[in-house]
Amino acid sequence: MKSSDVDYADVQGLVRFGYGKMKGAAYALLHVKNAAAARAWLRAAPVTNAVAMKPPPTAALQVAFTADGLRALDVSETVVTQFSPEFLTGMTEEGRTRRLGDVEANAPAKWEWGYASSIPHVMVMFFAECDGFDNFVEGAKGNAWNEAFTEVQYLRTADLDGIEPFGFADGISQPKIDWERRRDVTRPQLDYSNIVALGEILLGYPNEYQKYNDRPLLDADAASRGLLAAEDRPDKKDLGRNGTYLVMRTLEQDVRLFWQFVSEQSGGNPDEAERLAAAFVGRTRAGDPLVPPQKHAIPGIDHTDPEQVRHNQFTFAKDPAGARCPFGAHVHRANPRNTDYPGRPTGLAKLITMLGFGPKGFRDDLMSSVRFHRVLRRGREYGTELKPEDALTPAPPNESERGLHFICLNANISRQFEFLQNAWMMNTKFSGLTDESDPLLGNRAAMPGCPVTGHFTMPEENGGVPRRVSGLPQFVTVRGGAYFFLPSLRALRYFAGSEGVQE
Amino acid sequence: MVLAAIDPARETELRQLLESMNEAPGLVNAHNALVPFARFETLHFARFIILEDKTLNDVRAHGGGPAPTYSLYLAFVGDIDGEVEPFLHELARVAGAGLRSIFSCCVGFAANADLVGWMKSHNASTLAAYVNWRGRTVRRIHEEAALRDALVEHIDANQAAFRNLPPRQAHVKLQQFLNAERAAGRLKLSGESPAPAGWWLRNLTHMIGLPLLVLLALPLLIVIAPFYLFFLRRREKTDPELCWRVNQTHSDDLSRYEDHSITNQFSAMGSLKPGRLRLLTAMGVLRTVDYAARHFVRRGRLGRIRTIHFARWVFLDGKKRLVFFSNYDGTVESYMDDFINKTGFGLNAVFGNGIGYPRTNWLVRDGCAEEQKYKNFLRRHTLPTQVWYKAYPGLTAIDLERNHRIRQGLESSSLSEDGARAWASLL
């Protein structure tokens, strides 16, 4: 093993695998009842690492902590405070709720978990094939579980076969991690690439700026002995290395409201309704993007896999008017597939662009380069399936909630998840638009000077006045959320065996 | 910009007065009793801010002697159309009593003072300023926004008629609508009032004069250049970086005033690195920025950045300290990213002369490329802005450009097929 290679045995498997074959999954959100018992449970927990195995495992267990959780495990304050400010202040800090769109119906005070006393300490994630799922969970919990923890929530998930509750194929586009660190990120990136620097997803490695993100660096002592040294500070032990931040949000999806709205807007015509719904998403229900795939390959997208080519080998460059895929479509907002410079300028042209004399179209160069804002998604659906055609009927009494336990991994919460959520999803001014936020996720809340945020603009093929859909209701409501740290296995042992740092 | 030292005994009272102008922290009451901002038709942005620099110890850390002490200042900053003098008179007329009660918390303000004279004598001159769109008045912004709203509303109400209508026909149809609305007095689009002759003369003198001076000084500059670079490099390699993370209290204090609207204020201050080299560098760079902003940049852009409405740099305390104000669209995180990724060179050249800035090389390189250090540096130097007003909340600089393009298109008698397409897509 070269010194630059990642030790997969130290990384939790979720970073490398989505565990898609394990159809069963549940998230136990826990409070630490007894710190010593919790540490003992964590020391014995069979946490799955990222080493590829043949045959692949049939069950996996992952563990993540909030800042409160680290404190509850008696991790010393000088260590805890070295984590990122977003992680430390948490998702429900007031200014943050404004930026994330967690206001009005989304306000944390209304959440089912993640606010005040329901902020969890620890999340244990169980993955297994459906058959043995309950046995696996019971076995993994063992006898010590109830002594160590109290459950804040036990979130179940549903296997909807790769389809999210609104009925669209999900999880299609994911960045590819540059595990070998082959890409030179210091040069301006003039072509869209789906590869992200290792340090964007794992702490302790260079990010897209070729820099190391801040993370806890400890003095070498008995307690930190088991940790790896920091690459950039060899005199320090790197508690963050091979770990990352995990963002979780429980998003309730009102599937009936969604299909009833698009149906009503389409005069009850099911094909029209499906087209409008696809315009909201930017893909058809089968997952095909609304812009056609391009001929030349995109780094990080397997051009030998026909499904990957069909679903992901595209950018929006050939659709500058948004006539095929509206600017405000969900997938366009989530990943504009742009580069460091619009129009690939080189040499003098680059200098000219840099000084502001480049392209002067209204929508040119409005967005930040996407490579600094990618996240790895690992969420799972919950609730029972409701097919679009069945969604047009009124809800039966006591219908249960359905939606998505959104999970993403990123090394810098503010530059990645929060930027994405704020500047691209919730922003009513995304890409030169106005009065509209993400058609799926938008909270439709008014802001000073922007009383209406529920529009959706669809440029027309013939170049005429764009069609505008008005009065979008709120389809998705935030029901919970928290920022977690997903430690490396070495860091986990440091937390779990932390008698040495008790004060 | 009016700048005055605060009477220490009355600081608390002043803070209360300023807070009383807000409905909630960060949300100004545009019609507040002290300074009803909304009544000033030429005022784009305004702020009252207490310039409390919490980084004075950095001077000692830099090796510039003991941490200096300065008076605590109150700054009143406004971005206006037209000349300053008439605006000050209007201020005194409309908000005289309110301003008196605010300024009476400052050193040397007598109850019977001549308000306009006092504000003029406390004017702090701007070293460099950036305006997103020179010549675009508040009135024009409101008129063009009303135009866009009316057009969109008209289209929404007549969807069937516009659906699938070729762009040139839509253009003609909307021109007819505009003419009817104008005739009925429901829409107004004023012509541009030309800038006064005096302004043109000054502008021209500035445009030609500064390069002429540089040209004259060129032989000298060439001789000095190697020495300059030698000393610059030597300092760049040893100047300490002071980029700690901000503490939670400071962070909460900033956060309280941010992200209430689509546009945010930004105020920051810090001390310049000691010595003439850094002072001259900062002045040279900022003069260049100012010159470029006045005569050179494309409207609506600062380099590649299109989210800044107004910005200005002002020296304080005998050019020992620099304060920077701006008004930008989006959050501070996206603002910082924009600068790092799009205009890092300019950022380094200006702020690299400040104590504690991440290490630059050859003035413009690296520096803010240390993303997290730079963000820490910036956040440490950011100040909470107690009162901040914007005349057109809800409109970004991009909105203003779009609305202007809509108007321009509508006012052209005929558009090409491509031109009409591009124009229609703005609606």
What does this structure look like?
Chain A starts with 23 loop residues before the first strand and ends in a 7-residue tail after the last helix. The model of chain A has no long low-confidence stretch (mean pLDDT 94). Chain A has helices spanning 35-44, 67-72, 77-80, 85-89, 94-100, 133-141, 145-148, 198-201, 255-265, 270-281, 306-312, 330-334, 347-354, 414-426, 489-496, and strands at residues 24-32, 59-65, 122-128, 149-156, 176-178, 195-197, 217-218, 237-238, 244-253, 376-377, 380-382, 403-410, 456-458, 467-469, 476-486. Chain A is globular. Chain A has two domains: 8-248 and 484-501, no CATH class; 253-372 and 428-480, no CATH class. With 503 residues, chain A is α+β, with helices and mostly antiparallel strands. In chain A, α9 packs across α10. In chain A, strands 9, 10, 11, 12 and 15 form a five-stranded antiparallel beta sheet that branches. By secondary structure, chain B is an alpha+beta fold. Chain B folds into two domains: 2-135 and 239-390, no CATH class; 138-194 and 396-424, no CATH class. Chain B is built from 14 helices and twelve strands. Chain B has helices at 11-19, 57-62, 84-103, 115-121, 138-157, 159-162, 167-183, 197-238, 248-256, 276-295, 332-351, 371-381, 397-411, 417-424, and strands spanning 2-5, 22-24, 27-28, 43-51, 73-80, 126-131, 263-271, 308-316, 321-329, 360-361, 365-366, 387-390. Chain B has a four-stranded antiparallel beta sheet with strand order 1-5-4-12. Chain B has a four-stranded antiparallel beta sheet with strand order 6-8-9-7. In chain B, strands 2-3 form a two-stranded antiparallel ribbon. In chain B, β10 and β11 (365-366) form a beta hairpin. The relative contact order of chain B is 0.17. The mean pLDDT of chain B is 94. At the A-B interface, α4, α5 and α14 of A face α5, α9, α11, α13 and α14 of B.
Q: What topology emerges from the helices and strands here?
A:
The complex is a heterodimer of chains A (503) and B (427).
Chain A (H helix, E strand, L loop, with lengths): L23 E9 L2 H10 L14 E7 L1 H6 L4 H4 L4 H5 L4 H7 L21 E7 L4 H9 L3 H4 E8 L19 E3 L16 E3 H4 L15 E2 L18 E2 L5 E10 L1 H11 L4 H12 L24 H7 L17 H5 L12 H8 L21 E2 L2 E3 L20 E8 L3 H13 L29 E3 L8 E3 L6 E11 L2 H8 L7
Parallel strand pairs in A: 5-6
Antiparallel strand pairs in A: 1-3, 1-4, 2-3, 7-8, 9-12, 9-15, 10-12, 11-12, 13-14
Chain B lengths: L1 E4 L5 H9 L2 E3 L2 E2 L14 E9 L5 H6 L10 E8 L3 H20 L11 H7 L4 E6 L6 H20 L1 H4 L4 H17 L13 H42 L9 H9 L6 E9 L4 H20 L12 E9 L4 E9 L2 H20 L8 E2 L3 E2 L4 H11 L5 E4 L6 H15 L5 H8 L3
Antiparallel strand pairs in B: 1-5, 2-3, 4-5, 4-12, 6-8, 7-9, 8-9, 10-11
